[in-house]
Write a structure and sequence with these properties.
Blueprint: H1 19-60, H2 65-70, H3 72-92, H4 113-116, H5 123-132, H6 135-178
Helix pairs in contact: 1-3, 1-6, 3-6
């Protein structure tokens, strides 16, 4: 027996006579979505800047390759900087777990951008959705999208934290190695 998704169990009050409350809930979710997307762009910008700085340090701050091989501390520093650049690259890579364009999406996911990206989704289907969608379905769709985007954001900031820590360690080791 297939288990229902928790997002489908959410009960949503759709009393349209309380229009202000309905608009306020939707506006909250849309504002939350905008904040998550802005933070994602900020994380990507930080990862790009850190990667650029560490790349310049690695290229300009180190001795020729033959000297690095002779100095194990400098070799460790460069390896740490390269690891930090790797964390930055992972931060920048777009990820969405389980996205299969040909699979049938869960019922609660019918109105998200992942569903819209599927090859069988058309302008006609989107127009039909815009005319016939119920408020509860729209609310669940935005909430589901926010949950997915926030999980991606959390992974981005975790990788970014690892990138900063290893970058600082690598630069510190490089400073020590070149001043010995």
């Amino acid at each position: 027996m297939m288990e229902t998704d928790p997002a489908e169990k959410i009960l949503v009050e759709t009393d349209v006579s309380r229009g202000d409350a309905v608009r306020a809930r939707m506006q909250y979710l849309i504002s939350q979505n905008g904040a998550i997307l802005t933070q994602t762009q900020f994380a990507d910008a930080k990862a790009g800047a850190l990667m650029t700085i560490l790349g310049l340090v690695a290229v300009k701050g180190s001795a020729p390759a033959i000297t690095i091989i002779q100095n194990p501390l400098e070799m460790l520093a460069m390896a740490t900087i390269i690891l930090s650049i790797g964390f930055c690259l992972v931060t920048l890579m777009p990820r969405f777990s389980g996205f299969k364009p040909d699979a049938e999406p869960p019922r609660h996911d019918r109105y998200t951008w992942l569903f819209m990206a599927m090859p069988r989704y058309s302008a006609e289907l989107h127009g039909e959705f815009a005319r016939e969608a119920e408020f509860g379905a729209l609310l669940n769709s935005v909430a589901t999208s926010n949950i997915g985007a926030s999980r991606v954001l959390a992974r981005k900031f975790l990788m970014l934290r690892y990138g900063f820590i290893t970058g600082f360690v690598g630069c510190g080791l490089l400073l020590i190695a070149t001043n010995i």
